[in-house]
Amino acid sequence: MKILVTGGTGYIGSHTVVELQHKGYEVVIVDNHSNSSAEIADKIADISGTKPTLEIFDLADQALTADFFKRNKDLKGIIHFAAYKAVGESVAEPLMYYRNNLVSLMNILEGMKENNIPNLVFSSSCTVYGQPDELPVSEKAPIKFAESPYGNTKQISEEIIRDTLHASELNAIALRYFNPIGAHDSSIIGELPLGIPNNLVPFITQTAIGLRESLSVFGDDYETPDGTAIRDYIHVVDLAKAHVVAVSRMIDSNMNQKFEIFNLGTGIGYSVLDVIKSFEKVSGLKLNYKIVDRREGDITKVWANPDFSNEVLGWKAERDLDNMVDTAWKWEQAYRGKTIASSH
Ligand code: WQD
To answer: Is 97 inside any structural domain?
Structure first.
């Protein structure tokens, strides 16, 4: 059975392609490499033994996308990752974010309708909850006013999907990610941000490997036990497996309704300092960091109530924080071609 993975050479996309192939699915990737490289398709083949078909074009181009779907009417499902996702950049370039993220989605939905391709898994985010009023946060929590254009594109995308499904035979599952970190156990694929990392864990590993001078911890005056902000970090392989469960759920017609939404988190919140301590434990290194001012737009604390995903979707995160950080560190060392002897 053939599955389209848009953004399949990206961080979460590439890990999901590996898990799909592991389950016996045939995978077609569409990517424009705006935040990834074509060599990732070869690295996927190094892991799974099968190189996914790769078509390189921009899904925001309506004609190219319509043509792709006409040529791939036998798709059984689509997992849609392809989107811009840097919170800070979206504040500086809102129109680029709205156009890219929303037009791509609409082109995909049109292609599905026109070619009777029924099943969509959509990459959403816990950002839609903003700072939840109560924790842990479940799928029933209210959607809050988006803190960034990036977060708003996720909210609007869910609404576009909901309205399109209402008027069609399509099904969809939106997966609201918490904070994906870590890398594949082979260290062949991992998180590879272009330029200076926005996210915490790649900044930690790039600091430790000597690429960055030191990590800036954005604020230690939050209302949390150690003053630093709390997030629900989830291993990217656990996240990838959830996508296989979701697309299989739709193909096997096991859904309870046309549009289902699931939180993908561990249910455990860790602070920035917790993550740093975990890194120092697994690496044996002392991380160079300094406390600086808060980053604009950051929320204080969020972690998932994973019960609905565990009980209804039938998926549960398995890996702990040390494993997430350890695989991220092993990937960084493998990618930079050197290992750092532990300094302790
Ligand atoms: C985590 C914590 C920072 C960097 C965002 C998006 C989310 C998803 C993941 C795309 C925060 C602190 C970070 C640094 C730091 N994006 N931090 N120094 O902001 O929780 O989530 O990225 O899918 O949708 O909202 O992730 O990794 O940027 O930050 O102290 O150099 O680490 O303040 O508390 P975030 P993050």
So the answer is: yes
Domain that holds residue 33: 2-180+234-264
More confident residue, 344 or 229: 229
- Secondary structure of residue 114 in the 3-state scheme: helix
What's at 320, amino acid-wise?
D
The number of distinct structural domains making up the chain is 1
- Does 332 fall in a domain? no
What does pTM read for this prediction?
A: 0.96
Both tokens of 282, joined, read 């697994």
- Please give the Cα distance from 102 to 119 (Å, whole number): 18
Nearest residue (by CA) to ligand 1, atom 4, is 200
SS3 content of the chain, % helix, strand, coil (to 5): 40, 20, 40
Q: Name residue 79's beta-bridge partners.
A: 5, 121
Q: Is residue 84 part of a domain?
A: yes
101 alpha carbon to ligand 1 midpoint, in Å? 20
Closest C-alpha to ligand 1, atom 9: 179
What's the CATH code of the domain at 108?
Answer: 3.40.50.720
206 CA → ligand 1 middle, Å: 15
Q: Report yes or no on 274 lying in a domain.
A: no
Is 150 an active-site residue? yes
Q: How far apart are CA 243 and CA 237, in angstroms?
A: 10
CA dist., res. 228 & res. 226, Å (int):
6
Residue 342 has pLDDT above 60, yes or no: no
**Distance, CA of 153 to CA of 273 (rounded, Å):** 30
